Amino acid sequence: MEYKYILDGLDCANCAEKIRSSAEKQSGISSAAMNFMRKELTVTAEHIGEEELFFRISKVVSAIEPDVTVIAKKDYTDKPESHKADIIKIILSAVFFIAGFVTEHFIAHEGIPHIIALSCYLIAYIISAAEVAVAAVKAVAARSFFNENTLMLIASIGAIILGEYEEAVAVMLFYSVGELFQSIAVNRSRRSINALIKTRPESAELLCDGEYITVSPEQVHSGSVIRVRAGEKVPLDGIILSGSTSVDTSALTGESIPRDISEGDEVKAGSVNISGTVTVKTTAEFADTAVYKMLETVENAAQKKTRTENFITVFAKYYTPAVVGLAVLLAVIPPLFTGFDFATWVQRGLIFLVISCPCALVISVPMGYFAGIGKASSRGVLVKGSNYLESFAKAGTVLFDKTGTLTEGKFKVSGIYPDGLTEQELLEISAYAESSSNHPIALSVTEAYAKSVDATRLTSCEEIAGKGVRATVDGRQILCGSAKFLLENGITCPNQSGTALYIARDGKYIGCITISDKIKQSAQSTVAELKRRRIKTVMLTGDSEDAAAKAAKELGIDEYHSGLMPDDKREITEREKTRLGGKKRVIFVGDGINDAPVIAQADVGVAMGAGADSAIETADAVLMNDDPHTLIDAIEISGRTNSIVMQNIVFALGVKLIIQILGVLGLANMWAAVFADVGVTILAVLNSLRLLRK
Prior knowledge:
By secondary structure, the protein is α+β, with helices and mostly antiparallel strands. The radius of gyration is 32 Å and the shape is elongated.
């Protein structure tokens, strides 16, 4: 079974990974996953009682982070984190530290005043170091020797042994202040990300027995009637039954301009009703709504890590024990060749220990990518993992489906060309054959027919993805689809320019219907911007050569392929990946059922928000506003995120290396060491938060 726990007060990413690793090693636990941004530990365990498992997890967490409280997710109530106790502790410690400093430096150094100074330092040290000491002891008891608390405690006790009381207290005090600022910065990042989570509707007014009752959105079934008042969030996808209003869809699509809707219009869950009360007939369960999928994706995105994140995790695992060993060697070996001055070199070894904590690296890299995912979501790009976000900026080729991606996908019948029957008869036969399909071309035919379909006349219907439909109408076999589809069934067709639907009855060609489509307003500028960035653009379509050539010319696309089946698109995608040789990424953007296989094949598969569910489920990213130009936003955010992550890595390692060298040379004290640990962590986190700025 799967159990979820909230680790309240967890602000250290390095500690989070240690908790996950330790939990996974417990007997009876088969797997453990940690979402640091949500403070959520997910454990899969068999043959362990719920109480026993909770006890084990609490023990693991307490050994690594004593201040963290374990709460079963089902019992957790989110509330703002208070730093009041930490601030009081810091103030008390500072007061005693200042008292000791004044007594030591401005009053005689001998006798009673000296004892007062030492007492003040001791009280200040106990106040600021108590939590660190408890955490260090528990960690050692759990055989976790290489952690920040242990290193800090050893360093400060070493300073006291060497008679440097003032520095020992100052280090712990500065460390406490640094931890406070780190916690505040992490929580600020969490609040920024959680602003997206707040798009989740909390309740719905359901019409039941003539009265409206308030229920959870999960309790409302498709086909129910709900009421949405002005100022409320729309709880489920649906169609307006009565009333008119304006809705704010910015949380879903990134579009800031409100949209006017009235009777018969669609409305999406997560939109905010601005002006009027409306009644809505729901068209989906809550779990099938766009807002639910968006929240689920954003919350789980942190589980799919980039190569950089995986490298940093492995790096930190071996880095800390290595530098501890170096610190010991630094404290022992040099004195043997410099007059046995152990005190000086032990101090330098302790400083080296404090400098070496990898927290800045471990926390800033995943936080950078998570902030990038949050920023992309606010711009209408739903990215399902930081590994995919990283890849956008490395795009070498972008492959586009045509219909519904680069074009509106709102087809209209532009011509009817019968062979041996009337136009109306050809349109009627086609409409019946296509009546069960949701393909845009099929919908355009049924719309042109403009009559209801008698279901008794249609006895069978089979849709062949990327080809057409095979149906039985009035007892006669009908084929509707591409010329290639009919040719595969032994039927030849005359060539018709543009997008055409060819129809055969009982193995004989009976005519074709031409369909027109419109290029999306932003498609041309999207292609132009990709080309400006030296990214190759390719259009893949099942349409005819004439229709494909016309669209490619209008868009200014680099290369196009027409008359393709799903397997043909996959083959071209694989060919592009081979051509790029892994140095660049292949992105495919599509929207249809037949695009799902190639979306899965690409390095990054992107689905349009209004596309087929299968395409959206398979995709690595979704353009929620159905606008191809949002792809440019994804590439820009990806580039900026990768840049900030690299800045954090270079800055953290650079500062640590410089201060380590200064520490070895005796030019850096404990203050500089704590800055190299906590100070660098805070600056790296704040740098990551720049991604969330408007």
